[in-house]
Design brief:
about 290 residues; Diaminopimelate Epimerase, Chain A, domain 1; 2 domains; five-stranded parallel beta sheet; 11 strands; globular
C-alpha cells in the first residue's frame, strides 16, 4: 500500500494533484491544516508499504523518517523547506532555493508541465516566478483554506479540496466550480477585517479569531510584496504568539532560532512565548538594517 502525507496548503495540494493526474492516488492520504507539519507520526505502515511526502519539512519529521527507513520502508520526499541531516535510504527531492516551491519540484520529477505548479507558486507568495498571472487568485485561495488552528476553521478539509481539484483536472475548470465560489466569498468576508490592522512596533498583531487564523498567510504574503522585510505578522494567543515571518532571505533560519521553521522566504513559529518577542524583534531588526 502507498501512503501520501502532504501539507494542507496550496503547494501541498497542487503537488498531490500533479501526482494524481499522472499516477493516481490509490492508497491512504494524511494531511491537516498548514501548520500541522509532523504528519509522519500519523502513518502506521505495514510490511511492503511505501510512503510519499510532499511539502512538509523533513527536519520536523526527521526522527520518525529515520526510524521508518531503518525498518526498511521506502520513503520518497518532495519539499523545499530546511531538511536537516541526510537519512540513509530516503529518496529526497529537496530544493530550498528561494524561487522554488514543492509543486515545481514534483513537476520536474514527473517531467509533465502543469498549470497546477503555477497555481502553487502564487499560493506560496512566489508570483514573481510564475508565468501565469491569471492563477494568482486561485493560488491565494487554496493557500487561504489551509490556515487555521484546526480543521474546524477551514472551509474545506484539505484532502477534500485536493480531490475536488483533481476531479477538475485543470485550474481553469476548478475556477468554474461551487468550491471556488465558496473560497472566494469566505476570503472576501475575512479580508474586510484586515483593513483595521496596522503595524505597531514592527509587528502586525491579529486577534485569536477564526477569520484572523484563516487570513494570516495571505496577509503575510501581501505585506511581503511591499518591501524586503523581514515582516512579522502574529496572532495573539494569550501567553504566546503564533508568528508568521516573510522576507527575501534567511527567514527559515530566523524561525528555527525560536523553535520554528520554514524556508528562505517564509516561515513560522507556532508558539513563541511573549517574553521572547524582544529577542525575535532584535534579530529581525538587525536584518532589516543590514
Amino acid at each position: 500500500m502507498r501512503w501520501f502525507a502532504f501539507n494542507g496548503d496550496a503547494d501541498g495540494i497542487c503537488s498531490m494533484v500533479q501526482w494524481g493526474l499522472v499516477h493516481g492516488l490509490e492508497g491512504n492520504t494524511v494531511t491537516g491544516v498548514k501548520r500541522d507539519i509532523e504528519l509522519l507520526s500519523k502513518i502506521v505502515p505495514e510490511s511492503g508499504d511505501e510512503i510519499i511526502c510532499m511539502d512538509i519539512s523533513l527536519a520536523r519529521n526527521h526522527s520518525r523518517a529515520r526510524e521508518l527507513c531503518e525498518r526498511g520502508f521506502k520513503i520518497t520526499w518532495f519539499d523545499h523547506h530546511l531538511a536537516g541531516e541526510p537519512i540513509d535510504g530516503l529518496e529526497a527531492h529537496i530544493d530550498t532555493s528561494s524561487n522554488v516551491c514543492t509543486a515545481k519540484i514534483v513537476e520536474n520529477f514527473l517531467r509533465v508541465k502543469s498549470d497546477w505548479a503555477q497555481v502553487a507558486l502564487h499560493g506560496d507568495g512566489l508570483s514573481v516566478h510564475s508565468t501565469k498571472p491569471e492563477f494568482t487568485e486561485l493560488g491565494e485561495l487554496l493557500n487561504y483554506n489551509g490556515y487555521g488552528a484546526d480543521l474546524d476553521d477551514l472551509h474545506f478539509h484539505p484532502d477534500v479540496l485536493m480531490r475536488l481539484c483533481l476531479e477538475s483536472k485543470t485550474p481553469e475548470k476548478f475556477l468554474q466550480t461551487p468550491a471556488f465560489e465558496t473560497l472566494k466569498k469566505g476570503f472576501a468576508d475575512d479580508m474586510r477585517n484586515v483593513e483595521s490592522i496596522k503595524e505597531v512596533d514592527g509587528i502586525y498583531l491579529l486577534p485569536n479569531e477564526a477569520w484572523a487564523r484563516r487570513v494570516v498567510g495571505v496577509m503575510a504574503h501581501r505585506i511581503n510584496s511591499i518591501g524586503p522585510g523581514p515582516h512579522v505578522i502574529a496572532i495573539d494567543k494569550g501567553h504566546t504568539l503564533q508568528v508568521s515571518l516573510r522576507g527575501d532571505e534567511g527567514i527559515g533560519e530566523i524561525c528555527s532560532m525560536f523553535g520554528g521553521g520554514g524556508r528562505a522566504t517564509a516561515g513560522g513559529i507556532d508558539a513563541l512565548p511573549k517574553e521572547e518577542i524582544t529577542a525575535l524583534m532584535n534579530e529581525v531588526n538587525s536584518r532589516r538594517s543590514a
